[in-house]
Amino acid sequence: xxxxxxxxxxxxxxxxxxxxxxxxxxxxxxxxxxxxxxxxxxxxxxxxxxxxxxxxxxxxxxxxxxxxxxxxxxxxxxxxxxxxxxxxxxxxxxxxxxxxxxxxxxxxxxxxxxxxxxxxxxxxxxxxxxxxxxxxxxxxxxxxxxxxxxxxxxxxxxxxxxxxxxxxx
Amino acid sequence: xxxxxxxxxxxxxxxxxxxxxxxxxxxxxxxxxxxxxxxxxxxxxxxxxxxxxxxxxxxxxxxxxxxxxxxxxxxxxxxxxxxxxxxxxxxxxxxxxxxxxxxxxxxxxxxxxxxxxxxxxxxxxxxxxxxxxxxxxxxxxxxxxxxxxxxxxxxxxxxxxxxxxxxxxxxxxxxxxxxxxxxxxxxxxxxxxxxxxxxxxxxxxxxxxxxxxxxxxxxxxxxxxxxxxxxxxxxxxxxxxxxxxxxxxxxxxxxxxxxxxxxxxxxxxxxxxxxxxxxxxxxxxxxxxxxxxxxxxxxxxxxxxxxxxxxxxxxxxxxxxxxxxxxxxxxxxxxxxxxxxxxxxxxxxxxxxxxxxxxxxxxxxxxxxxxxxxxxxxxxxxxxxxxxxxxxxxxxxxxxxxxxxxxxxxxxxxxxxxxxxxxxxxxxxxxxxxxxxxxxxxxxxxxxxxxxxxxxxxxxxxxxxxxxxxxxxxxxxxxxxxxxxxxxxxxxxxxxxxxxxxxxxxxxxxxxxxxxxxxxxxxxxxxxxxxxxxxxxxxxxxxxxxxxxxxxxxxxxxxxxxxxxxxxxxxxxxxxxxxxxxxxxxxxxxxxxxxxxxxxxxxxxxxxxxxxxxxxxxxxxxxxxxxxxxxxxxxxxxxxxxxxxxxxxxxxxxxxxxxxxxx
Lengths: 169, 663
Prior knowledge:
The structure holds 2 protein chains of 2 kinds.
Chain A: H1 3-33, E1 34-38, H2 40-44, E2 53-60, E3 66-67, E4 73-79, E5 84-90, E6 102-109, E7 115-121, H3 131-139
Parallel strand pairs in A: 1-2, 5-7
Antiparallel strand pairs in A: 2-4, 2-6, 3-4, 4-5, 6-7
Chain B: H1 2-30, H2 33-62, H3 69-74, H4 81-87, H5 92-112, H6 119-143, H7 169-197, H8 202-233, H9 244-269, H10 273-295, H11 302-307, H12 310-333, H13 348-378, E1 384-386, H14 388-408, H15 419-445, H16 450-473, H17 480-486, H18 489-514, E2 516-522, E3 527-530, E4 533-544, E5 548-559, E6 562-567, E7 570-574, E8 579-583, E9 585-587, E10 592-603, E11 606-615, H19 617-636, H20 638-643
Antiparallel strand pairs in B: 2-11, 3-4, 4-5, 5-6, 5-7, 7-8, 9-10, 10-11
Helix pairs in contact in B: 1-2, 1-6, 2-5, 2-6, 5-6, 5-7, 6-7, 6-12, 7-8, 7-10, 8-9, 8-19, 9-10, 9-13, 10-12, 13-14, 14-16, 15-16, 16-18, 18-19
């Protein structure tokens, strides 16, 4: 084969092999590591697989936050005003977590219908509603009851949510 | 009155930028030297006008002029002055002004330091940069004017800067990051100018090389500063989140890293010319894409973008024009460029190509992970989130592959090398890095850990293989210093940057594996031990800050009975926004950080407390600093300044050059 063609073939093969590896890794990783969001209505209606990693979100119901006195365990209820879901979490809550605030929780739904969160996210801006939660509330037709979305976003606000790492102990 | 002057300065800047985009171009087409020469003074004028606008906006912030909309949204009379200054770029409009100001500074720098370039090339480069400035100035004036007033009833007090941004890190992080982002516009302008002139020879690669390296070093520093800021300010000890905003800055870095290596091949050997041009276009396009992602609101929600699409559509349109026009120009001109393929399968060219391919593939995987949730949401496939596990699963193997080649690359010569010789030289380095990797986890932690072995083998391999190459190239017969001084500056640059990469790799891997964290309830007087350290919670006391009230805790850290540090983490409540903030306290060290943050009060004087032990975390940023130093050395190489005088393309590398590394 002509040396230039051989060189080109080599380059093309290199790109194809590398891209192939990347596509393989990416599709494998995507299948394992993306979480779908469900509003409380879907969870309460039993549309959500038990024991699979998902995200759930809604407003924290007023008066529902209960702290354990001896550990960092906390229980609360989230709602989209059509249904409610009890959530349990052990760890430090984000600064902006509060009653009647929007939250998103990563975790698994238990057999007993309680959502076991291993991560609770709350936005670092008091006016902000997580988009999924806002959408779920809009669908339930009660958007007026919640605060208006933030007027402006700070430029260098890095993580969209203040994240809480998984509890190791 | 002063904000109106600022607005006026912006409009003048737009006029000057338009003139800069048009007049030199006309000069190039008609061969009119006067018009071409006008590019230099127009650049200076652009810098002056954007500088005036920036100063006037700063003045509005410092004097609490709340009739200016963004001042009322992002500042407060109680805000300390340094943060008032930071607040200038704390929001959308101000950060755009910073963007344009830095673009004007780069343009003027090119105008100043390009005396040796042919006049028509200078005119082309500056015209392209002027056109980019037109796009951004139009965007700012049309959709997001920083001097917008609230009249006739200005608010008496501002809403305050987001407390997260009230931090010294925010004073330097955004300017550094933007210096990097915008700096790639120089590489882009050189690439477009080369395509435009049809003179896609090695000289343009030599011209744009130092500029690209400087932009890359700023971006490196900017990303590292952002990571450091996130680490100490967000209050839970994470240093990289694979957040879309971070990815937006990381993608240009990856392509830029590819670009500086590819430019080396084009400069030294006259190969990969079209590929290098394409990378330069990609690097700047990704900078623009990052700006789009961060600025359009599309990240917050596709729906909020759809509801208020003006800004997003403008940037998207601008992005389309820039990328579309560049690629059309590329498609028209690139096929006419020929390069003789005079290298074998085992040559430095091939190793640098491998670097490029891996960097590009890594960029594409990051891009996919960043855009997938947006695309899925836009197509109504569901609301997905792609988290760190995806990025880690894809990115780590790619970087391992990169590092494997990175050890061999510097030892390989241009054109062709006997593979056996190079590999044989590296056998001791390979064996030593494997041994160090296997011994390290036992020596450090007393037990085997596969991740640690992996990390230490990889970073050890870079260090030892690079030093092996140094040993082969340098003649140590008359002392180490004399030997090192004989090597060209660019070789030292490569050495330091590659060692920096090894340090960062080691930091990332070791801190991920060996970090220990413990969230717990702590009452006053309670003591807790973690990773061999005792933490005693001595209680809290109220503190009054300039614009916040805080509870400041005192935690004594001791080891074997000796007190090492007294840490004061705070829980602050910023009064203007009634926003809670966690202020972590850190006892830093080269080999370990001790990191303490407060959660919420649990009653009875007890607090939720987060204790962290983070070994080697500083290495992540130390490595980045080394990489940036490498970049600075590379840009300082005399070769660029002397070589610029020659306009004859030097496409045939002489063989004596083969012994000397230029990467």
